[in-house]
Amino acid sequence: MKHKSSATTNIHLPLPRKSVPGLWWGLLGVTAFSFTVPFTRVAVEGMSPLFIGSGRAVVAAILAAAALLLTRQHLPHGAQWGRLAVIAGGIVVGFPLLTSFALTTADASHGAVVIALLPAATATVAVLRGREPARSAFWVATAVGAIAALVFASIQSGGPGQLGWADLLLIGAVIAAAVGYAEGGLMARELGAWQTVSWALVLASPLMVLLAVVSVVQEPPSGTPVQWVSFGYLGVVSMFLGFFAWYRGLALGPMAQVSQIQLVQPVLSICWAGLLLGENLTRTTLVGGLAVVVCAGVAVRIRLKPAP
């Protein structure tokens, strides 16, 4: 495989609508990601959240470094390193660590509803990042979705206006991932889909190795076989292979259209929480998840229509 072999173009112009393979690649990536929240919930029951958040990044970084070396990829240059640092901060450091700590107390289904804000958040970051003119309806739909997620979280935390630390961590994780997704989709057009996430993993590896060592010294991991399998999935699939498909889809684009596929992710995650973890899916969870997903979908759809 040669340099930029998975890149579709080196320019930043929107790709034609006939690029439907982008949607299929996006769906494959989202399906892989949909197991992240339930499997994180399983893993943190037997291992420290610091180890889960950092250790999975170390596993993925080893795979990424091997792939980059075996295919003899050229080093990124100049400003690309700074942009890779932004991506790494969002999807390698921020999202894994914040969700790992949040899910030590929050149910997987609860986490999935809050994380359902991610499509609208990604679209918002893309609008701000590209300085795109956006319709006022886009901002209204995004705001309503955010309010719906906050209302759901506060109700689950004990009453209106009450948000737990887990909710704040999940919201932070959404913001971090949105920044990483939006910037990563642009970088994938320059470096290639899997190359982008691989370089981000390698760039963040010194920090994540340090955090993993600290976590092992503080609390040696001693999980069950199921918990170790969940950890392995997080490192190999959620942190590495899933991004192959996801960034490939974003690179094929159009980014806003492909980002709509994210709307499937919280629905799948909630289903896995019920089927695999046996969590009780209450009416509040279902209604809250539906409200956030619908608002996110409306926001992303509005963004597809150019503003006057």
Which properties best describe this structure?
308 residues, 75% helix, 0% strand, disordered N terminus
Give a verbal description of the structure.
By secondary structure, this protein is mainly alpha-helical. Helices cover 75% and strands 0% of the residues. It has one domain (22-304). The chain has helices spanning 21-33, 36-43, 49-70, 79-102, 108-115, 118-130, 136-156, 165-191, 193-218, 225-252, 255-259, 264-276, 283-304. α3 packs across α10 (225-252) and α6 (118-130) crosses α8. The longest helix is centred in the last third of the chain and has 28 residues, at 225-252. The protein is globular and about 45 Å long.
Instruction: Report on the biggest sheet.
Output: none
SSE ordering? HHHHHHHHHHHHH
Structural class: mainly alpha
Radius of gyration: 18 Å
- Beta-strand segment tally: 0
How many helices in DSSP terms? 13
* Uncertain runs: 1-18
Beta strand %: under 5%
- Compute the average pLDDT: 82
Q: Percent helix among the residues?
A: over 70%
Describe the global form: globular
Number of domains: 1
| Distance, first to last CA | 43 Å
